[in-house]
Protein: DUF1538 domain-containing protein
Amino acid sequence: MKVLEGLSALWETLRSIIPLTAVLTLFQLVILKKPIDNVKEFIIGFALSVFGLHFFLKGVSMSLLPLGDSVGKNLVVLERRWVIVIIAFVIGYFGTLVEPALKALALEVEEISVGAIPHKVLIHAVAIGFGLGMSIGILKILKDISYIKIIVPLLAAIIILAFFAPEAFVSIAMDSASATTGPVNIPLNMALAIGLASIIESADPLLSGFGIVGLTSIGAMISVLTLGILTKF
Structure:
């Protein structure tokens, strides 16, 4: 049965990748009328992407999700809430550092800017913002604060910072916020938030546990815009 379940999960992963690959191949060969440079390498790469995504999703469901949920449920044993907030920042920060989409974006930015914006600087700046957003989200759950009271000031801060930051950093900030919502951060941080919200009596897991991804994205935008302003000096 386990073999059949494994094959079924692998088939689901294959089904999710085939349409995208087929569309791109169709555009390349039929519409653009350009050949695939290395067919053998393309086929091997396709197979690796299928197995890689399959094993990654399987690993996340077996490790990060249950671990994040367990950590979230057990955080309440810490009497000092500021310690919980700091732990949330650390988890968000290090989770962002391994996000593959962010690394790809940072390398592109470094290349386009001809080294003016080093990829490591951008990655750490985004990680700091993400961690702060994570901390705010966890504090919101602990204090049972309304999202409106948090989001409105943060959005106002983004608008103000956007006026003073270089125009290029405004675009980079928006892309950075999207890049943080990848396969590492979302399952880990949502599991952490939902696990914590499910233990606190005054918190509704549906209302409190969700929405934290948006706060982390806002935090990432604020940190990148701040970085842009600092580059002026």
Observations:
- Residues 39-74 form the longest helix (36 residues).
- Residues 46 and 52 are 10 Å apart (CA to CA).
- The two ends are 63 Å apart (CA to CA).
- The chain has a mean pLDDT of 82.
